[in-house]
């Protein structure tokens, strides 16, 4: 490693917040960042941007951060790419972190690309696994590639910081250590509202029933095996009696049986419920990467060789049109 690169120290996690509430993926990344920082024998820091968000620094310490870099300004009250990226680029040039992690959320995806470009470094999006090679200090950034057919491990050889985004619910939530202390570093970057090209006029909350697949504890997901929109009702019925949320494979979404908001997988949502029912889903790799870390997986499929059985905790080989009504009946009684 060149002498220039050895100057970079510390694992940083962007603390995503909206209206003063931290996104769970930020805490998950602090948990993961802790492991990486320990292996690299360096510190773990949170980057906190916003207005009146000091309370989140305490949460970051409780989730394992050694330091928090806080930039407080009315300009940062609502997320906008330009001032947020500017703040992180400034902090990064001053303190030279070795690694920066962000959630692969709408905000994190937007911000990470801009920050990486401005810093002239690499970025691996949507990682599903992170590790470090201790000797070379490379961040090993693994993610599905070539349509999910292989897992690629990517390194950023010549530039720092090494940047990656990780989807929500991929990493474990760390322990919350009430009262754990850290170093709060306030940075005044003198951001001016007139320098920001985009003005926020109003925030309008989306109407209608939001789909919170990534937070669901029970998901009943249906696939192409259902055969029709009418049959897909069986999935909704089972979800209803279990108090769960409906999910779907891409095939079911493309068939028009359910909206894309419900899609689980590589191009849908990554989920990690306590129980995941996969009904009439074959278990293509692009589906598996979005649900295989669920605590318990129950698969119903008539094909004994279906790949879904390889990740299932309980596999029911049979015709779903017999199995599903029996399940609904039984769960109703309980
Ligand atoms: P199929 O593979 O057709 O499986 C249907 C299953 O139903 C079969 O196993 C069959 O045995 C079973 N079945 C049929 N009848 C019955 C019955 N009566 N009783 C019991 N079982 C029955 N897919 C996703 O899901 N999510 C993604 O995010 C995603 N992203 C993708 C991204 C890319 C770049 C690409 C190339 C593909 C992506 N896909 C995604 C598509 C993926 O490759 C598969 O095509 C898709 O997951 C298949 O959906 P399925 O399992 O419902 O359908």
UniProtKB/TrEMBL annotation:
PANTHER family documented for this protein: ELECTRON TRANSFER FLAVOPROTEIN ALPHA (PTHR43153), ELECTRON TRANSFER FLAVOPROTEIN SUBUNIT ALPHA, MITOCHONDRIAL (PTHR43153:SF1)
Record InterPro entries: DHS-like_NAD/FAD-binding_dom, ETF_a/b_N, ETF_a/FixB, ETF_alpha_N, ETF_asu_C, Rossmann-like_a/b/a_fold
CC cofactor: FAD
Keywords: FAD, Flavoprotein
Identification of the protein by name: Electron transfer flavoprotein subunit alpha/FixB family protein
Cofactor annotation comment: Binds 1 FAD per dimer.
GO biological process terms held by the UniProt record: fatty acid beta-oxidation using acyl-CoA dehydrogenase
One Pfam assignment: ETF
Sample GO molecular function, one term: electron transfer activity
Species this chain originates from: Metallumcola ferriviriculae
Domain Electron transfer flavoprotein alpha/beta-subunit N-terminal as annotated: residue spans: 11-200
Binding site for FAD: 224, 249-250, 263-267, 280-287, 301
Family: Belongs to the ETF alpha-subunit/FixB family.
């Amino acid at each position: 490693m060149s002498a220039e690169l050895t100057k970079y120290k510390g694992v940083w996690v962007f603390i995503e917040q909206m209206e003063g509430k931290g996104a769970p993926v930020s805490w998950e990344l602090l948990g993961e960042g802790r492991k990486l920082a320990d292996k690299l024998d360096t510190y773990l820091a949170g980057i906190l941007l916003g207005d009146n968000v000091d309370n989140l620094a305490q949460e970051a310490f409780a989730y394992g951060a050694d330091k928090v870099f806080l930039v407080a300004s009315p300009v940062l009250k609502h997320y906008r790419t330009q001032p947020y990226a500017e703040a992180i680029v400034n902090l990064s040039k001053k303190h030279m972190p070795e690694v920066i992690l962000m959630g692969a959320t709408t905000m994190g995806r937007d911000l990470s690309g801009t920050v990486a470009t401005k810093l002239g470094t690499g970025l691996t999006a949507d990682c599903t696994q992170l590790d470090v090679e201790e000797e070379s200090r490379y961040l090993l950034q693994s993610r599905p590639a070539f349509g999910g057919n292989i897992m690629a491990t990517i390194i950023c050889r010549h530039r720092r910081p090494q940047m990656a985004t990780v989807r929500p619910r991929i990493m474990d939530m760390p322990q919350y250590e009430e009262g754990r202390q850290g170093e709060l570093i306030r940075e005044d970057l003198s951001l001016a509202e007139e320098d920001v090209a985009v003005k926020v006029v109003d925030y309008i909350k989306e109407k209608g029933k939001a789909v919170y697949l990534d937070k669901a504890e029970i998901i009943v997901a249906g696939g192409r095996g259902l055969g029709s929109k009418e049959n897909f009702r069986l999935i909704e019925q089972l979800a209803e009696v279990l108090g769960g949320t409906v999910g779907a494979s891409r095939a079911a979404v493309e068939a028009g049986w359910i909206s894309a908001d419900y899609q689980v997988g590589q191009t849908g949502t990554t989920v990690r419920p306590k129980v995941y029912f996969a009904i009439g889903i074959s278990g293509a790799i692009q589906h598996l990467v979005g649900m295989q870390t669920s605590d318990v997986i129950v698969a119903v499929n008539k094909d004994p060789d279906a790949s879904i059985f390889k990740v299932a905790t309980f596999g029911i080989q049979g015709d779903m049109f017999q199995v599903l009504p029996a399940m609904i009946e039984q769960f109703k009684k309980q």
